[in-house]
């Protein structure tokens, strides 16, 4: 029976084959879980440009195995499929297509059907704010109230007497504690001492007692008010902090102001708010900015990772590197937009809510010489030192009995109201808040009602009659559940930007309103927003050429001038890693991608070493690749793009110690097998790093830093910690 024998033989081979396969899979699996224990070697010489393969032998062997497998796999696939494939696409809704994350089918190239910007040089995909994936994880949140009691104090401006009155509501007070029959009330002025560092030197003056109501002197800008039981001083019924904007009556001596009417400009900032997250978490506010006169710029692409560099460009036109060079004590300092407005005759203001750890005005070179007429920061710091603060997720959430943002909104509303009242000088104010929006992905949903009320209040203060209002953010979410979704790339890179033009401005400058409307779906960046702010104090510049060229980005321009339809990220000075103008195609996670991930981790370690952060932070190792995608070039109209031998990949990977999630955009030269121009600070960190990076201060390095544990370090880690590199070779 030769046939039966042959069948038996075949069966035997099949068994052996599967047996070997199982062992192989098991070995592979074991290898992988062993990776965490790999003892890594001496950090390689930094001067070499080509990456030495420093992996231990078993890892190299594994990579080779993977590569072999993949190559064999590909060959088979190519043979199998001669006819063109139909991509697997699942329609999520009428607007766009959502990728099924669990589906690992590698040929899947889905072209979006809708774009925010759609030109030859830029195809910025539309991402649905209400996609099913988001709605599944969306958890609206409520704000914690800082106090339940009704306000017993308020201030009111007396138009005739030209001062503020402080008024106490006795009925409310007595309801707070029925046992108390008689109260004494006082206020204490909070001074900011005129020293080098006013923010650290607030002074709380002796109490001034009053009954029912009193006038606040001209020099009072912030006070603490309290009422206590007349018979027992320590029984305090209510204690509160109040800030007032005092305007000097200077209307007589500003008669020689320009003939042209100058618009006031108010910038309202919400930290960490993408246009998508804005739509989904703040529907009431979104409705407000959908009214007549508001223009949205949907093609607004951020240009750096974190808050400071984005705001820096928006408000000074500089980038971080330039700032360090230009703002040395020897030079004239930095050119902040507030100075330009001041020179143009504006009254200027600045407010930020995060007193504890200011997101913006840190003790950094250049940042201390922002000079404005009205600055909330010293006042708020004084109040913060006098009243209790409540922190949440590292942000000062409540100061005294109010949300910290409410001081900013109050300050802004008073600023707007005071100058609308006087109306003889235009104002420029920048009002930034991030304590709530930045604390978690969906915390803004609790803020929506408050923010919409705030806008309504500004409307009542007649702000929208005269002023141009900019509602803007620095970037989208950078960690949290949103970063696990397929649209996270866009979520992070497309901040909110809406601009309001008042009726008189639209009729005086119809060409500017028209251009702004046309720019709705064109690519723009922080540099263009900076130019717009400059343009507003030089409205006679009717063409882009009439505004002085911005050295840091000569191709940027005002948003009140028509942007070119064909505009690339390069024209907008947005770097590759932040650019949202291209589609990407999913790659299989083969040995090549794995190796690329390792190279990126090597570059991160090298950067840490050169910046001397190895003294504080552990060395990273690649734990696993999560995703690899290849960039499509626009010229090829959706086909996978090659720039000569350069391929651009977008990689997501995880590192140990447990656990860093990263995303990097790398230009890979296939011929030389090397990564080109990798700018390490531009690599994104996708999960929170607050807890693991407390041993260092630097914002950029924190992304890559896992501080050393208290326990004893391994020998290899000790070596890494002790290494010192003094020469910085060119990349
Ligand atoms: C406000 O009231 C709620 C319930 O009435 C209570 O749980 C909360 O602690 C109170 N908050 C403050 C700040 O008193
Ligand atoms: C005064 O008020 C405080 C706080 O309510 C209380 O602890 C204290 O016992 C009171 N002292 C007198 C003498 O009643
Ligand atoms: C207002 O005037 C007083 C003196 O009259 C001066 O000390 C103060 O600096 C002025 N404030 C502003 C904001 O101009
Ligand atoms: C615009 O006006 C400013 C002064 O208001 C003047 O210095 C500048 O030369 C003018 N520019 C043009 C292009 O007319
Ligand atoms: C960070 O540390 C705090 C306390 O130190 C802890 O409550 C919190 O859960 C930690 N967060 C993360 C993400 O580990």
How would the blueprint of this fold be written?
Layout: H1 2-34, H2 57-80, E1 90-91, E2 97-98, E3 115-118, E4 123-125, H3 132-137, E5 153-158, E6 163-168, H4 170-176, E7 183-192, E8 202-204, E9 208-210, E10 213-216, E11 222-229, E12 232-243, E13 264-270, H5 275-281, H6 283-288, E14 294-296, H7 307-316, H8 320-326, H9 337-343, E15 347-352, E16 374-375, H10 376-386, E17 389-392, E18 395-399, E19 402-403, H11 404-422, E20 427-433, H12 444-460, H13 463-466, E21 467-472, H14 488-493, E22 497-500, H15 503-508, H16 510-518, H17 526-535, E23 584-586, H18 591-610, E24 621-631, E25 646-656, E26 660-669, E27 674-676, E28 684-685, H19 699-702, H20 715-722
Parallel strand pairs: 13-20, 13-21, 15-16, 15-20
Antiparallel strand pairs: 1-2, 3-4, 5-6, 6-10, 7-8, 7-9, 7-11, 11-12, 14-22, 17-18, 18-19, 21-22, 23-24, 24-25, 25-26, 26-27, 26-28
Helix pairs in contact: 2-18, 7-17
This protein binds 2-acetamido-2-deoxy-beta-D-glucopyranose (5 copies).
């Amino acid at each position: 029976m030769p046939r039966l024998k042959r069948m038996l033989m075949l069966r035997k081979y099949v068994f052996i084959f599967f047996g070997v396969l199982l062992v192989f899979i098991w070995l592979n699996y074991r290898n992988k879980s062993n990776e965490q224990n790999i003892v890594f070697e001496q950090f390689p010489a930094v001067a070499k440009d080509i990456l030495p393969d420093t992996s231990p032998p078993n890892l190299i062997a594994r990579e080779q195995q993977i590569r072999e497998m993949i190559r064999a796999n590909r060959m088979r696939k190519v043979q199998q499929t001669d006819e063109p494939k139909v991509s697997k696409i699942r329609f999520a809704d009428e607007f766009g297509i959502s990728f099924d994350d669990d589906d690992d089918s590698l040929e899947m190239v889905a072209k979006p059907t809708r774009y925010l910007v759609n030109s030859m040089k830029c195809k910025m995909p539309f991402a649905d704010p209400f996609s099913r994936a988001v709605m599944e994880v969306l958890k609206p949140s409520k704000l914690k109230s800082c106090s339940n009691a009704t306000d017993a104090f308020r201030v009111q401006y007396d138009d005739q007497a030209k001062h503020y009155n402080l008024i106490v509501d006795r009925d409310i007070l007595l309801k707070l504690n029925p046992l108390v029959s008689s109260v004494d009330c006082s206020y204490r002025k909070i001074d900011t001492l005129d020293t080098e560092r006013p923010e650290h030197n607030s002074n709380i003056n002796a109490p001034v007692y009053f009954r029912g109501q009193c006038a606040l002197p001209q020099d009072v800008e912030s006070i603490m008010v309290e009422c206590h039981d007349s018979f027992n001083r320590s029984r305090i019924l209510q204690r509160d902090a109040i800030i007032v904007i005092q305007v000097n009556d200077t209307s007589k001596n500003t008669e020689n102001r320009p003939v042209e009417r100058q618009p006031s400009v108010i910038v309202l900032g919400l930290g960490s708010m993408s246009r998508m997250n804005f739509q989904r978490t703040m529907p009431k506010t979104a409705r407000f900015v959908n009214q007549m006169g508001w223009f949205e710029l949907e093609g607004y692409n951020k240009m750096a990772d974190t808050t400071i560099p984005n705001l820096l460009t928006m408000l000074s036109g500089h980038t971080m590197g330039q700032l360090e060079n230009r703002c040395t004590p020897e030079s004239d300092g930095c050119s902040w937009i507030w100075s330009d407005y001041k020179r143009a005759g504006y009254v200027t203001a600045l407010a930020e809510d995060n007193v504890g750890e200011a997101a913006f005005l840190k003790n950094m070179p250049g940042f201390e010489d922002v000079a404005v007429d009205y600055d909330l920061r010293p006042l708020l710091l004084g109040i913060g030192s006098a009243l209790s603060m409540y922190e949440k997720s590292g942000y000062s959430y409540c100061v005294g009995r109010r949300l910290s943002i409410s001081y900013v909104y109050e300050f802004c509303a008073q600023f707007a109201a005071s100058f609308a009242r006087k109306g003889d000088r235009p104002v420029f104010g920048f009002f930034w808040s991030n304590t709530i929006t930045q604390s978690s992905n969906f915390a803004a949903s609790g803020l929506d009602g408050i923010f919409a009320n705030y806008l309504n209040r500004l409307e009542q203060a007649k702000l929208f009659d005269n002023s141009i209002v900019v509602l803007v953010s620095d970037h989208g979410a950078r960690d949290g559940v949103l970063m696990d979704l397929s649209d996270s790339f866009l979520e992070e890179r497309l901040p909110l930007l809406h601009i309001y033009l008042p009726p008189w401005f639209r009729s005086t400058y119809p060409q500017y309103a028209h251009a702004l409307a046309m720019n709705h779906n064109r690519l723009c960046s922080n540099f263009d927003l900076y130019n717009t702010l400059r343009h507003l104090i030089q409205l006679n510049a009717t063409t882009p050429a009439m505004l002085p060229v911005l050295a840091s980005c000569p191709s940027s321009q005002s948003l009140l001038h028509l942007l070119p339809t064909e505009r690339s990220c390069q024209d907008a000075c947005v770097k590759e890693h932040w650019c949202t103008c291209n589609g990407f195609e999913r790659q299989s996670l083969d040995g090549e991608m794995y190796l690329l991930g390792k190279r990126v981790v090597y570059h991160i370690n090298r950067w840490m070493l050169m910046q001397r952060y190895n003294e504080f932070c552990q060395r990273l190792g690649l734990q696993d690749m999560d995703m690899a995608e290849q960039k499509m070039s626009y010229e090829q109209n959706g086909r996978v793009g090659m720039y000569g031998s350069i391929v651009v990949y977008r990689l997501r990977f995880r590192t140990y110690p447990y656990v860093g999630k990263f995303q990097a955009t790398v230009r890979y030269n296939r011929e030389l097998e090397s990564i080109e121009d990798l700018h390490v600070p531009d690599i994104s960190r996708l999960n929170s790093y607050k807890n693991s990076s407390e041993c260092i201060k630097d914002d950029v390095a924190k992304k890559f830093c896992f501080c050393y544990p208290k326990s004893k370090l391994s020998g290899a880690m000790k070596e890494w910690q002790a290494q010192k590199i003094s020469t910085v070779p060119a990349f």
